[in-house]
Amino acid sequence: MKQNKTIFLKLIPIMFFVIGISGKAQFSSVTETSISNNNLKIDLSFDEEIFSVTGCTTPSCIEITDFNVTLSGGNATLASNTPITITKLGNYNFIPQWNTYDPTQTNPNANREPNDSGTEDYAQHEVSGQLNDFSETQRLNGVLEIIEPIARTIAGYNYITSYPSDGSACAHSYYRSTTANGWNSEKLKAQNAGGDLLVYNSPEEFAHMIPAFNANGPTGVGNTWIGLSQDRTAADYEERVQVGGVWPFPITNGGWYWDDGTPMDNSGSKLKYQITIALNGIADGDELVSVNPVTGPASVFNCAGVAAINQTNGANQVYLNDKLDPYIVSSSISDDNTTVRVVFNETIFTDAASNPMLNTDFELFLVQNGSVASLSSINPSSIINYGNRIFDLILPMIGLPMSGNEVLTILPTLGSVFDAASNTASSTQINNIVGFNPPKTGPIYLSNIYKTSTVSGTLAVASETFLCDGITFNNYNQAYHDGVIFEPQVGNYLLYNKNYSYPSILIQGSDFGYFHLRGFDRILEVRKSDGLIVAKYSCL
Q1: Which of 263, 273, 380, 391 lies 20 to 30 Å (CA to CA) from residue 66?
Q2: What is the full DSSP assignment across 349-414?
Q3: pTM to 2 decimals?
Q4: What pLDDT, in 10s, does the model give residues 187-244?
Q5: What are the residue ranges of CATH 2.60.40.1220 in the chain?
Q6: Domain 3-91+269-319 fold
């Protein structure tokens, strides 16, 4: 259910016109919204350029204070209504920046990059300013990029430059690592420093860096790792090989993506801005996030100077991904200690394909506390499934009777319980322990007597057939005996009420009924005419 929410929002007609300050002019605002799998990055698509000033002739940058983020529903909450960062994503073709790129193919060695057969999955920024594919075994310095306009001292890095260099709030600052490591190590180091590896979001940004800062030195981007890698699981993944001694042209993306999620050739995409958000708690998928421009005063304009206002068509909204592991809400044991009911916070399944739960998906652990009762299996004998959320676990008890001192712990089998978003249930739970009920005294529950007619009082009427010939699962009865000893004795009479579900093993005779006395490993012989127990036998 939760996965379908985002799809539903995307089906909403995307055209939405924002009325400007004058009430006459209009322009398209957010046309589509998507969110990263980790719920931290939200992409906003626009039909045209947006500006933070009323005219587009003066350069301006969109800042975090230009947008407001709200959240409703679910388990997680926003740490701030202002985005943590905002970045304009590149919508241009970066493929010509590969080393030896030659659109004329006059050089027989042209267009050979990227050319590896599967081990060179990371991008090196060469001293030439072009790109080369390298393997993780290479040791290079990484380029850290942080969204902040002013240079500062960062341990393990040397400052390179900032762009734009006018000191605007949306400027990015760049630093070169002082140590050489593999790509993944440098990426983690950059994230720990508060940023990420360098991602080029525009030709202008690249032109600022190259050729002014492409040196192989403490303040250059030459011979470094940047935030570009090859995704082998991508639909467009490929490794280039020569055909007839010639490298194929044109060069396709081949599964190469920037760390912001955009491919190397993103020229056909819409204008996008990516914001990052901070959350408190773990999202359960019911959280609806809305992103709107700040309107008091107006903060976002088109080139004509028309201001954007809050949208109402849903194109600026997206549900968070469910990241909350399923967990047990409550556990309870039946009066006769034979069944435990377990309730989860959401629907669960035995695998990511949403197949129904199995009895092996639950594990049972019994603390006897002096009792002779025990479990014959770590798993329930069987389970009854109510809507994939509530389960009755039939306990595999042996060594009866029970004392009432037993304590049972129920756990999802590790790696075997999934929700609809493929989150797995933890083996650590807090609502999964039940204590057994103490033995009853006086008239006690015995088992089922299968009967469809209504009887009042005792069973002294000879015309009553005390045990019927058939088992009707919708009409179980609950039996009692009239003695004061826990286990029924010969000479006791059976009394009963209708419509309880306590199944037993019934063997029919002509004048007498025989049934298994659950919990005592005994078979009772009951006279049909009046319900008198005439004999008792060991189940063995």
Answers
A1: 263
A2: BSSTT-PPP-GGGEEEEEE-TT-S-EES-SS-SEEEEETTTEEEEEP-EESPPP-S--EEEEEEPT
A3: 0.69
A4: 999 999 999 999 998 898 999 999 999 999 999 999 999 999 999 999 999 888 888 8
A5: 3-91+269-319, 328-435
A6: Immunoglobulin-like (2.60.40)
